[in-house]
Write a structure and sequence with these properties.
By secondary structure, the protein is mainly alpha-helical. The chain has 11 helices and no strands.
């Protein structure tokens, strides 16, 4: 499906940039690229389905790299998790992106909302206690290799299908399944999702799903705010950060599902 030239109204141009600001701040705060949030919002302001799905993806790479620099500086990145996530996630993302041409944009958008809602409820009603994290004790959870492989494959395929960088799935899975501290989960998610955005972008560009004007507007808004969001998260108490994270995901997920 090749997209023709896309013209935005003045209002849509401003709204798209504002969406970039929002996802940049949320991305830095919660370790996600932001395209999962941008997609339903771009649909609400009237952009075509596949434009809303794919166009925010290229903007997530620079914004997540900027945000990850803040976490890197404070030592929150576990490079072993990053290496596994990239090595397995890249081919899985390519597979998912190629499969996306067989689906309509409607199911992809609905799935985005449902996944965001589900993880939000999990963080609200099943909070982790940092003292229970196995990584805090200097070890790792049992079957670490199996866990990280599963996460990387699932997130890679879904990221390719939904044309997002996977941060909205990676961060909660790293926290819940790998039992990383919440800030380390955000930090690793940012690095991996930034890299996963690249193959997904190339495939969706080849398929003709990307409006680069929309990408630019989203990037202009998101890149400067992503670093600020990361600094706020780092300075916030982890237990409070997890509560806010769950609440934000729940509200956004519910809104996206019921306004699809």
């Amino acid at each position: 499906m090749m997209l023709g030239p896309l013209s935005l109204t003045t209002l849509q141009t401003g709204e798209t940039t504002a969406i970039g600001v929002l996802i940049g701040l949320l991305g830095g705060l919660f370790g996600k690229g932001g395209s999962a949030v941008a997609t339903p919002l771009l649909r609400i302001i009237g952009l075509p389905g596949f434009v809303a799905v794919a166009s925010p993806l290229p903007a997530t790479a620079p914004s997540t790299f900027v945000a990850s620099a803040a976490y890197w500086k404070d030592g929150f990145i576990d490079w072993r998790v990053v290496r596994w996530g990239v090595a397995i996630g890249i081919p899985a993302t390519i597979v998912g992106a190629l499969l996306s041409k067989e689906t309509g944009s409607g199911p992809l958008l609905m799935l985005t909302g449902l996944l965001v809602l589900g993880f939000g409820l999990t963080f609200l009603f099943m909070p982790d206690k940092e003292s229970n994290s196995e990584f805090l004790e200097g070890g790792e959870p049992s079957f670490f290799t199996l866990r990280i492989t599963f996460i990387s494959i699932v997130v890679g395929i879904i990221s390719g299908l939904l044309a997002n960088s996977g941060g909205f799935l990676l961060a909660p899975l790293y926290a819940k399944v790998l039992r990383l501290r919440i800030k380390s989960a955000f930090a690793c998610s940012l690095i991996v999702s930034a890299v996963l955005a690249i193959p997904g972008t190339l495939v969706h560009w080849y398929l003709g799903h990307i409006s680069w004007w929309v990408t630019l507007l989203v990037a202009v808004g998101s890149v400067p705010l992503s670093y600020l969001g990361a600094r706020i998260a780092i300075r916030t108490k982890s237990s409070r950060l997890e509560q806010v994270y769950g609440l934000v995901l729940t509200l956004l997920g519910g809104f996206f599902v019921f306004h699809h």
